[in-house]
Design brief:
Largest sheet: 5 strands, mixed, barrel
Bound molecules: succinic acid
Distance between the termini: 50 Å
CATH topology: Hypothetical upf0131 protein ytfp
Strand order of the largest sheet: 1-3-2-4-5
Strand content: 35-45%
Number of strands: 7
CATH architecture: Roll
Amino acid sequence: MLEPVRDGNWIFGYGSLVWRPAFRYVERRPGQIRGYARRFWQASTDHRGTPEAPGRVLTLVEAEGELCGGMGYRVDDAVMADVLTDLDHREKNGYQRVSTSLYFDRESRETAVALVYIAGPTNPHYTGPEPVEDIAAIAARARGPSGENREYVLELARALERYGYRDEHVEAVARVITNRG
Ligand code: SIN
């Protein structure tokens, strides 16, 4: 059976956009995208770190069979251009908009086409794979204009737990940070 597709302008958040969207939306619904895994493999020199001491923030890497849970936001036509201008600025450090299918939760079977910001492997701030302990050690001490890097990690971990999404990578980094105190 075909899944019914919701129309409208949808934006999918998987990192800070899950818990701090800071843009105008008319509806938000948890959902998942397919074929991507969330990784703290992006250096942050402008939000959660500085050029001298970059923090670590999330990007998505292609991963067949993986599901990535987050938040879908529907944005009114009248403000969509302004919202994208603001988000392009917020995500300017290597992220690009990608269009993907968003699968709303669980019982509804509805889908939508959503924009998601991904920092791909050729952007200059992409770190590639790093050990979880190293990521956590960096995130535990980095801070930037948007605040402490540890807040970025721990707020997302809490939000994912609240919405019932498991993410072993996020949980592992959050656990090491928390255990370090
Ligand atoms: C997102 O949240 O969807 C993009 C990455 C970030 O800003 O943390």
